[in-house]
Design goal:
By secondary structure, this protein is α+β, with helices and mostly antiparallel strands. Helices cover 49% and strands 7% of the residues. The longest helix is centred in the middle third of the chain and has 42 residues, at 805-846. 44% of the residues are buried.
Length: 1523
């Protein structure tokens, strides 16, 4: 680090640029001149010269992030050019400078390592708590280094320069052993440090990335020298490290570090050497002692992983789990766990197998468990952890022996295996797969995610599942799911275990595998993980197979099989599964076959050791072990037994037949127990002595002392067990145990010899433990004739029906146990199935999204004909009973304001979202706008009170009432609300606003609608058609209306019921904003309330009609019937409407049914009433029905319908007459006049039309010339026009009749809807044949038709005299509304994004930070923008109130997501734009082209129209008016 000497202006400039932390303008200035070649070279050299100064400034900087970005902004331009980088490397020692600067940088934050020997350790490591590491301050320098190493010529210089390599290894060793974890044994750690993020990031960026860069240049034979260099200096650094931490042969207990970059450099260069450079592995491997040391720390990590998952580190807090997960996570695994396991594989292939196996069990602390005795003392492990640690040890061995990632798989095979493993755990989206496949970090390897090989492998192993919706409304993404043959042939549980971050993913993969086998009929039960054939081993690693053929492993396998068979504690199915897996691996990879003859003759003589004669698993399997001597606590049951005489002197856990007793004794010498630890110690000692003559003997005893048993344990005594089993016999007995039957195993080759020739039988590839045992026995038989013979013998032996006494009781116990278990299992299955079906039926009823009011299981009132009162179940207290005056029952309802109806337009084509300046949407043609204009016009010319009865409101801000169909006592509900109020849990709703969720189905609700006490019988009683004539009925209706004041007694007096009805009415009123209820010119006029109340009924009927698709053709008991609350709603409305008496003089009923003599023809001062022909018939219907005493008689209802139909028909004729040309009018007028006096004149539209025309001609109706003429006026088109005009009213009336009186709605074709509804409403006395049917035949005039029409028309005539311009405009036109639709969106999201993300807001004229657009009306708004805030309401919330009466649907332009605002809450709905793989791209992070998903948009529209946002979307939160 020399002193800087500046010689030119450029150097001075750069110096100050650095000093001031790279001001942006200076950076731009310096970079702008780079095109000049001389400047570029000069600048680069200057930059390199100042490199150390940059590092110092960077370390001191407070804004290191910004500064880092700017440094890299410059350096990337300089160092990415290979020619320039090479030149600077040669002339300015760029590599030396970089490595030295990095080394200096890290030296500032070193601390003493506490690994191994705390007091005497000389090793220093970086302190991960320092800002330098925590904030990744080093990354610009590291990234420059990685950048220049990507150039072949520069990397070559680096790899050839020994001094640099030494320095670099020195740098890497700073990270070796950092972030040491010490296991907390007593207290929970007080403060969980999060430094591990920094540690993992540092190892990945500062060590692994440069390593991958270097590796990418070691791909051919010619580069062997480089690998030798790296390996040599790496080993030197490792040796220094072992010396520095004072390491001998035992790692210090209870500590672990996940960071061993030196080991990983060594491993990865070895792998490269064998895979690409054809180097002989043995020439670069160190001696045995070094290998023994090398394997210790990676093995310690594997054991610690198992401890962490066994909850032994739980006192260290969550962060230790975080480390274990990061270590195997997809971005880290191929720089961490993969090299570690590979290094262990290399060590295992070169070390003594017995030593290696015993080391593994010792590291995992389960040595003491591996005893034949039923009880044992474990000095280093609590018994609750034994099982999972044993599982961990066996699983690790399986991984070690099965993985071939660095031992012979090609890149494509690796990619395929990784992909299959990820897909088996869960279906994956394309982007998550890209993320989960460990990418080969050096870009030149060819398997970069997204490359061609990625796509082709993906299409080979997976099927694409298009995005669908689940009934809960949760949006699915497009997923990839494994193909059937992948499950069948490629599912590899070992790979899954290696790659799972969460243990539950292994279970998930097994569950999916089970489901596949069930579905494809391959295996019905619970399968075990399948055994998968491995890629052949690379010859360099053949030594790995020795592990499977060493006595230590066989003793362990034998012991475990025996323990499982004897039901010892702490063993699990997983243990058995792994034991069998290891046996099978051994059989698959057996060394050269020894000839059976030679073996049987001289095999036994060769046996100098206890237990097994040789090391080959195939022959050891059949070897019988008779007696085993075990050490057991004095309390163990084994102690009581007398040993058989013959074993008294039998020393080792021996197993020879008695005729060889003498020989045995001579060999064995003293009696001792088989001990893994002792064996391992001995081996290590031998090697040490062989390697170093003056072995450091002083330290050794100290280390071995650590494991001596603490004094507190009870005395161990020796007992001798009679075993008399071999691995084969244990396997066969195990088969019996698993099947729960004696003699369940029968050698398959006795029936079919072919089995031995083609042992690969598909029926063995999937199955449970029994299948696995059968598969193993078959393989054993195939490999050796002797084994085959012995298996047959054992099977014959077991067969005798009288088994030995001892076994029977134990077996019986297990049999009983098994049977009991089986029964319990069946019972449980049955219960579960029952529960599932119940749940399913509930889900189907409660969650049916398709039709918003699907049938609900509990009908509101299920009543037979003979029951006099409706019975309700209270879902809170569970009692059933009628609703009474004192204790009323209510329906759980959700009241919400809705402007959906107001969004109907009279065009069939939905409007498009504007994406250019030319396209604009004007709200003039919406239903709401037109109704508004009409009311305002009427109010200008007519008396206010009558105007307010001539129309309905509620097109905007109408109140929609929906129920889930559940009922509760209103007093129960009040106490339920109290309990919710006191419950401090954060709910997604506001209890103070009366919101709650239905106690039964959890549907969102905010009020309770009282059920009117009454009998259900009326419905049926009033069905009978009376034969009263029309006149009588008309009179009766009028009389009933006159009795307004006289209610049933109960209601006039205050009862609980009437109070509740009032309160629910208040709720209904307060649901919508004031502006949607006040239309009267005089404030607080009762007419306002009157209008509002019948409009609520109108809104709900119209919405039900919309939900049915706009017509009643589908018929049926309205799906809404069971879930509809209209009947109850009418009662509440009727009760309130009858509080307002209508002055009989103004009662519209009179005008409809009587010809009134003109009392005062002189024009009165005040405005006239609205002429009858200008009144909305559906509104009149509701006024009539709701002002009559309830319950209504069906005959009166029919009478009202008939009278109103005559008015409707006249309106239709008037509207038609305006549409004709003057000549047509003359023609109709004359033809009508001719037939006026025929008998059927009153029921013929020609006659009536003629009359209407002649009557209206008296006024100024036809004066203006411009008439929109009907194209051709022939009788058919006129009939069609009249029917279309009347249909909307008939639909509303039919729905109303259905809700008031029950009865199904008939279904029909669209063209016969009119006739069907007319007959349903009783307008058609006798149904005639269709061809001669005319709409006029439905007419039934209460007074002579012509008088009536003349009277109605005269009102218009007199109005026309005063206001000729308005007389025609106010005529009711044929209403043709299309169903409400959201705006149509363009196919490609980019179209929207380009237009809107730069668009200025019309209110504040700025470009919003978060632009959004309303999908209902297309308004552009600023989300969260303070610029457009009005009285603390942000623009989106404000707009949702104005446009949707509290419901807003906005597309967020910069995120492609839709948010829903509903009142005071909002939720993220999801996106309707997906990429080519069917995935959302929220916040446009991935930048993929997005296309509209029509199905999703349909669902959004469906939820909007059916008002089910609250029920389907689950994640609501308050927006505090801030959106």
């Amino acid at each position: 680090m020399d002193v800087l000497k500046h010689k030119c202006f450029l150097e001075e400039l750069l110096f100050w640029t650095i000093k001031y932390e790279f001001p942006q303008k200076m950076v731009t200035f310096l970079l702008n001149m780079l095109p000049d070649q001389d400047y570029k070279i000069a600048f680069t050299k200057t930059f390199v010269q100042h490199y150390a100064f940059i590092m110092k400034t960077l370390k001191k900087s407070h804004e290191s992030d910004t500064m880092s970005n700017r440094i890299v902004h410059i350096s990337v331009q300089l160092f990415s050019n290979e020619e320039l980088a090479r030149q600077v490397t040669e002339e300015c020692q760029l590599l030396d400078i970089m490595v030295t600067v990095l080394l200096y940088m890290m030296e500032s934050c070193l601390i003493k390592s506490e690994l191994q020997d705390e007091e005497n350790s000389l090793h220093v490591v970086v302190n991960c708590g320092e800002a330098l590491l925590k904030n990744n301050t080093y990354w610009p320098l590291v990234s420059d280094f990685i950048n220049i190493l990507s150039h072949q010529s520069v990397a070559k210089k680096f790899l050839e320069d020994h001094g640099l390599l030494v320095t670099w290894m020195n740098f890497v060793s700073f990270f070796q052993g950092m972030n040491l974890n010490k296991r907390e044994l007593n207290e929970h750690v007080e403060f969980e440090s999060q430094t591990y993020y920094a540690a993992f990031a540092a190892e990945l960026e500062a060590c692994a990335q440069p390593m991958w860069g270097l590796l990418s240049h070691c791909k051919v034979r010619e580069t062997q020298e480089y690998t030798r260099n790296v390996v040599r200096y790496c080993l030197e650094a490792l040796q220094d490290w072992f010396d520095a931490i004072n390491f001998v042969d035992e790692p210090a207990p209870n500590q672990v570090t996940f960071h061993l970059p030196l080991h990983r450099y060594f491993a990865m260069f070895l792998s490269k050497a064998v895979k690409c450079q054809e180097l002989d592995l043995d020439t670069i491997l160190p001696d045995q002692e070094m290998l023994m040391k090398l394997m210790i720390h990676p093995l310690q990590i594997q054991a610690s992983l198992s401890e962490i998952h066994s909850n032994m580190w739980v006192r260290n807090g969550l962060q230790i789990k975080g480390q274990a997960m990061t270590y195997v996570q997809s971005h880290f695994c191929n720089s961490m766990i993969d090299p570690d396991i590979y290094l262990l594989q290399v060590c295992a292939s070169r070390l003594d197998p017995d030593y290696f196996i015993s080391s593994v069990f010792e590291r995992f602390k389960v040595v003491d468990l591996l005893t034949m005795a039923s009880q044992h003392q474990n000095t280093v492990l609590d018994s609750e952890h034994e099982r999972s640690m044993l599982e961990g040890a066996l699983t690790f061995l399986v991984l070690l022996l099965s993985l071939r990632l660095h031992l012979g798989m090609t890149d494509d095979e690796i990619l395929r295996a990784e992909m299959v493993a990820q897909l088996c755990m869960n279906d994956r989206t394309h982007s998550s797969l890209l993320d989960l496949i460990p990418e080969n970090p050096n870009p030149k390897s060819g398997i970069i995610p997204g490359s061609l090989s990625f796509e082709s492998v993906l299409s080979a192993v997976a099927d694409f599942k298009a995005p669908v919706f689940e009934p809960g409304g949760s949006m699915q993404q497009g997923m990839y799911t494994p193909k059937g043959e992948v499950w069948d042939k490629e599912f590899d549980p070992v790979m899954v275990i290696l790659r799972t971050v969460y243990r539950r993913d292994v279970q998930s993969a097994m569950d999916r595998y089970t489901a596949f086998l069930k579905q494809s009929g391959k295996f019905p039960g619970n399968p075990w993980p399948p055994y998968k054939k491995r890629t052949p081993l690379h010859p360099s690693y053949k030594g790995l197979i020795k592990l499977l053929h060493c006595k230590t492993l066989h003793i362990v396998l034998f012991t475990l099989l025996y323990k499982i068979l004897m039901d010892h504690q702490n063993l699990s199915e997983h243990v058995l599964c792994m034991v069998l897996y290891l046996i099978e691996l051994g059989l698959e990879n057996s060394p050269e076959q020894e000839s059976d003859e030679e073996e049987s003759a001289g095999g036994q003589e060769r046996c100098h050791d206890s237990w097994f004669p040789g090391s080959n698993l195939v022959s050891n399997m059949r070897h019988f072990i008779n007696y085993v001597r075990v050490r057991v606590p004095e309390t163990a049951p084994e102690v009581k037994r007398e040993p058989p005489a013959s074993t008294s002197s039998d020393g080792l856990a021996s197993s020879q037949s008695s005729r060889r007793k003498s020989l045995q004794r001579e060999n064995s010498g003293t009696a001792q127990v088989f001990s893994l630890v002792a064996e391992r110690r001995k081996k290590f000692q031998e090697i040490i002595n062989r390697n170093t003559s003056e072995a450091n003997q002083v330290v050794r005893p100290k280390t071995s002392m650590k494991w001596s048993a603490p004094g507190a344990t009870p005395q161990l005594t020796t007992a001798i067990l009679e075993v008399k089993e071999s691995i084969l016999s244990l396997l066969i007995k195990l088969h019996h145990k698993l099947s729960g039957k004696q003699n369940s195993y029968y050698p398959p080759w006795l029936d079919d010899v072919d089995v031995l020739i083609h042992p690969e039988i598909p029926r063995y590839s999937h199955g449970d433990g029994m299948t696995a045992v059968e598969r193993i026995l078959l393989k054993a038989a195939v490999q050796s004739r002797l084994n085959k013979r012995i298996i047959e013998e054992i099977c014959r032996k077991v067969t005798p029906p009288v088994p030995p006494k001892k076994i029977s009781s134990a077996e019986k116990k297990t049999l009983d146990k098994e049977e009991r278990r089986q029964k319990a299992r069946e019972r449980q299955q049955k219960l579960l199935a029952e529960f599932a079906s119940r749940q399913k039926s509930f889900m189907e009823t409660a969650m049916d999204v398709e039709s918003p009011e699907a049938d609900i299981a509990m009908e509101v009132a299920t009543s037979e004909q003979h029951v006099s009162e409706a019975i309700y179940d209270c879902v809170i207290c569970g009692q059933s009973g009628p609703s009474t005056e004192d204790r009323p029952t209510g329906l759980v309802v959700l009241l919400q304001a809705s402007s959906v109806l107001g969004q109907c337009r009279n065009s069939t084509e939905p409007k498009r979202l504007p994406t250019t300046e030319e396209e604009q949407i004007y709200p003039w043609d919406t239903c709401a706008a037109l109704h508004d204009v009409r009311l305002t016009t009427l109010q200008r010319y007519f008396r206010d009170s009558s105007c307010l009865q001539a129309v309905s409101i509620g097109w905007e801000g109408g109140v929609y009432v929906q129920t889930c169909g559940h009922t509760l006592h209103i007093d129960c509900h009040k106490s339920y609300m109290e309990s919710l109020r006191n419950d401090q849990v954060l709910q997604g709703f506001s209890v103070d606003k009366g919101e709650f969720t239905c106690p039964l189905c959890r549907q969102f609700a905010n009020s309770v609608l009282p059920c009117y006490p009454g009998n259900n019988v009326e419905r049926s009683l009033w069905q009978s058609h009376s034969n009263k004539c029309m006149q009588d009925l008309v009179q009766e209706v009028e009389d009933l209306q006159e009795q307004l004041g006289t209610f049933p007694v109960s209601i006039s007096s205050e009862t609980n019921l009437s109070k509740e009805m009032e309160s629910v009415m208040k709720d209904i009123k307060s649901t919508t904003q004031k502006k949607y209820t006040d239309y009267s010119k005089t404030l607080g006029s009762p007419d306002n309330d009157f209008l509002f109340m019948y409009s609520v009924a109108r809104t709900n009927l119209e919405l039900e009609l919309v939900h049915r698709g706009g017509n009643l053709c589908s018929g049926g008991a309205s799906t809404a019937g069971k879930r509809s609350c209209l009947n109850q709603l009418f009662h509440v409305l009727a009760m309130h409407m009858r509080l307002y008496s209508i002055d009989s003089a103004y009662n519209p009923w009179r005008k409809l049914t009587q010809t009134i003599q003109d009392k005062n023809s002189e024009i009165s001062e005040e405005l006239p009433e609205v002429p009858v022909l200008y009144r909305d018939v559906s509104s009149l219907l509701l006024i009539q029905i709701l002002t009559m005493p309830q319950p209504l008689h069906k005959e009166h209802f029919n009478c009202i319908i008939k009278v109103l139909f005559t008015l409707l028909y006249t309106q239709a004729l008037a509207a038609l007459s305006v549409k004709c040309s003057a000549e047509d009018r003359m023609a109709w007028k004359e033809s009508g006049a001719l037939r006026k006096n025929t008998s059927s004149g009153e029921k013929s539209w020609e006659v009536l039309l003629g009359h209407v025309i002649s009557e209206l001609s008296k006024g100024k109706m036809y004066e203006e010339g411009e008439t929109e003429e009907l194209t051709v006026v022939n009788p058919d088109s006129v009939e069609c026009y009249l029917q279309q005009f009347c249909l909307p009213f008939l639909r509303i009336a039919s729905l109303l009749q259905h809700h008031l009186f029950g009865g199904d709605l008939p279904s029909c074709q669209e063209d016969e809807e009119f006739t069907v509804l007319a007959s349903c409403l009783g307008l058609l006395p006798s149904f005639q044949s269709a061809h001669q049917f005319t709409s006029a035949s439905c007419l039934d005039w209460p007074v002579p038709a012509f008088d009536m029409i003349s009277q109605w028309c005269s009102e218009l005539a007199s109005f026309g005299d005063r206001h000729p311009d308005q007389v025609k405009a106010l005529l009711i036109q044929e209403p043709k509304w299309d169903l409400p639709r959201l705006l149509q969106l363009p196919e490609n999201y980019n179209t929207i994004f380009q237009y809107y993300h730069r668009k200025t807001c019309t209110v504040c004229t700025k470009v919003p930070k978060d632009p959004a657009v309303c999908l209902v009306c297309g308004t552009f708004v600023c989300l969260k923008g303070l610029c457009c805030k009005q009285q603390s309401y942000c623009e989106c919330v404000l707009h949702s109130q104005n446009c949707g009466a509290g419901t807003g649907i906005f597309l967020l332009i910069n995120a492609s997501v839709i948010i829903i605002i509903r009142g005071h809450r909002f939720c993220l709905w999801g996106s309707v734009y997906l990429d080519a793989h069917g995935e959302e791209d929220r916040d446009l992070r991935r930048g993929k082209p997005l296309y509209i998903c029509k199905e999703r948009y349909k669902v959004l529209e469906q939820q909007w129209v059916s008002h089910t946002f609250d029920h389907i979307n689950k994640r609501w939160g308050p927006h505090y008016n801030g959106l």
